[in-house]
Design a protein that fits this description.
Layout: H1 16-43, H2 46-67, H3 73-104, H4 110-131, H5 139-168, H6 172-210
Length: 211
């Protein structure tokens, strides 16, 4: 019986522009991970600490994305699936950090929060602008774009939290922002996982039809 399914397209040629964009984003995220990790610990800020973990996760994701450029759709989707799971895991880790900070009850240092938040925002806007052109690609490209978008949104929230902490002397603005960042990680991870699973399924169907 003849199969009416279409064949899986050949793996795309390496996109030099996407590769360059990934290298730039990788460097930016690795550097900001160190800055926010140290700054978050110094300022006792949950939102900065959470954002530093996000920077680290993104740096790893960009490195993995570079490794699978030119691979088949199935393997690109498989890597995207792992990245989506990592994004969701980040959300749960941040929720745990929020609970811990609430129990400790130590207000963060607002000036340090704000200064690092502005620096992180600039870094993530640069990354987001560079990766914007690839936002409608496969699940692997989409996951990269979502990482940068979520980071930029999170940095704006960190700055607002710093203003809130400065004005009220309370830790609640910091906790609320960290919770928002956790939600972004969970929802972003869900979107990537959903698309990656669909692409893996489609790839298997197309492969079976080509036999």
């Amino acid at each position: 019986m003849a199969c009416t399914c279409s064949h899986e397209p050949a793996p795309p040629k390496e996109n030099s522009k996407f590769r360059t964009a990934l290298w730039i984003a990788l460097f930016i995220n690795a550097a900001m991970f160190l800055v926010e990790l140290i700054g978050g610990a110094y300022a006792h800020s949950s939102s900065l600490w959470a954002d530093s973990l996000d920077f680290f996760g993104d740096a790893v994701n960009y490195a993995v994305s570079l490794a699978v450029l030119g691979a088949s759709l199935y393997w690109r989707a498989t890597v995207a699936l792992l990245k989506g799971m990592t994004m969701a895991l980040f959300g749960f880790v941040v929720i745990g950090k929020v609970v811990y900070s609430y129990i400790q009850g130590i207000p963060p240092e607002a000036i340090t929060m704000g200064a690092i938040g502005v620096l992180a925002l600039i870094a993530n806007v640069i990354s987001a602008v560079i990766l914007y052109a690839f936002r409608d690609g496969d699940s692997n490209m989409k996951s990269v774009w979502l990482c940068s978008r979520n980071d930029a949104i999170g940095n704006v929230a960190v700055i607002l939290a710093a203003i809130g902490v400065f004005g009220t002397g309370s830790l609640w603005p910091d906790i609320i922002v960290a919770a928002i960042m956790a939600i972004l990680g969970l929802t972003g991870g869900y979107q990537v996982i959903k698309q990656a699973l669909k692409e893996r399924k489609d790839s298997k169907i197309e492969t079976s039809c080509s036999v």
